[in-house]
């Protein structure tokens, strides 16, 4: 029978944890839809996409119209007006290269958006875990206040019986006052952090935040080396720099093509009057024309190429520095994850020992009225260990969330 009850309890706990994780996922979806800073990043990406069709097309053709105030006499008759239409064509492949520049730049913008989303998700998760700790702190403090109230009643009974000092009651009152102050502080923190959490989701601050009774205790899914390997491949900041480097590479090709001639193709139409003496008198004239620009000033184009080369070197150096920074940050986050695991095991043990000690001390005090101060001291220790245990649970999940953010998840 007891085994069946235990199984039911375990299944209920698992169901509660899964429900809490689903709730957090819903909060993440809300943040992704509503957060204005994330929307701004996405709009910047959309704006970058609109640059591609702008640079991939030809320049507008030139149409000109001329009317001769004093007609120019030719053997076919006087020229009365002239219409010209011309189109400039860049060197072969220039337009495609221009598109490549802005396609890569748009991809870099998209990675900036993904980086902002990953950062937002980490902020939401860490804020959620912090709210969990505050809520647990409030509940644990309320439990300890109730326990101290029972100690107070026990002390009053012993005082009335003459087997304890009236100082015992005063000691309880002092401890209760400290707990009431701590409780007020925690409730203030809850209000502040709930506003922060709802602002991340960009929802009304009056909306209730659903917090689980017990935080899940999942471990980091990846080994330390797997995380380090993933950093250089999946981190959105590094991927953005890679696309920026590709954009500059296309820019370098474009700078070289800018040093090539542009080709002008056009047509001129001249309207001729009928007063000429030629057999073709009054026949309009039509002329095809072709021209090229002559890129004589080579230093300008060489400087364009050199500028891009230096910018690529700067991006490469920035990426190496970013990798070093990310690895350093990861090592700190990983050590915090390991430390949180150690603290969980420590404070589980300490809490259990403190509870056993309190039961022994309560029994002794009930029988001989001694060691009441030690009961209060041990109760205070149990409160501390309970809070530190919940903080370790919260810190562990926050460190996992931060490592996942570094990995681009």
User: How would you write the strand order of the largest sheet?
Assistant: 1-2-3-4
The CATH class of the largest domain is Mainly Alpha
CATH architecture designation of the largest domain: Up-down Bundle
Radius of gyration: 38 Å
Q: How many domains make up the coordinates?
A: 2
Distance, first to last CA: 44 Å
Number of helices: 8
In short:
This protein is of the alpha+beta class and 409 residues long.
Question: How would you describe the overall organization of this protein?
Answer:
- With 409 residues, the protein is of the alpha+beta class.
- It has two domains: 19-57 and 101-260 and 298-406, Outer membrane efflux proteins (OEP) (Up-down Bundle); 59-89 and 263-294.
- The protein is 72% helix and 11% strand.
- It contains eight helices and four strands; from the N terminus they run H-H-E-E-H-H-H-H-E-E-H-H.
- It has helices spanning 2-34, 36-55, 94-160, 167-201, 224-234, 236-258, 298-368, 372-406, and strands spanning 62-74, 77-89, 263-272, 285-292.
- The chain has a four-stranded antiparallel β-sheet, with no helix packed on it.
- Strand 1 (62-74) and strand 2 (77-89) form a beta hairpin.
- Helix 2 packs antiparallel against helix 3 and helix 4 (167-201) packs parallel to helix 8.
- The protein is rod-shaped, with a radius of gyration of 38 Å.
- It starts with a helix and ends with a helix.
- Residues 5-16 have low confidence and may be disordered.
